[in-house]
Design a protein that fits this description.
The chain is flat and about 60 Å long. Helix content is about 65%, strand content about 0%. It is mainly α.
Length: about 80
């Protein structure tokens, strides 16, 4: 079943069932449970958590780009 035996025992790699269950629970939450939960509530104020999250993503992507550039130029790697 697996082409690469090294990943055969990884989480979610043994069968499709866990992935389908996770997807079904997500769809159920997004379409039914979540709206029922938020029915009589005000929307959450997420401006600052989203701003912080975006800056963290920018920093991580800058670091990845810097590391890839260093490896590329130091070892003259060609894709």
């Amino acid at each position: 079943m697996f082409l690469d035996k090294r990943v055969a025992n990884w989480f979610l790699m043994e069968s499709y069932t866990p992935t389908l269950i996770i997807t079904a629970v997500y769809v159920l939450f997004v379409t039914w449970i979540g709206p029922k939960f938020m029915e009589n509530r005000e929307p959450y104020k997420l401006k600052w958590p989203i701003v912080i999250y975006n800056f963290v993503c920018i920093a991580i992507n800058f670091h990845i780009c810097k590391e890839v550039s260093v490896v590329f130029f130091k070892f003259m790697y060609s894709a």
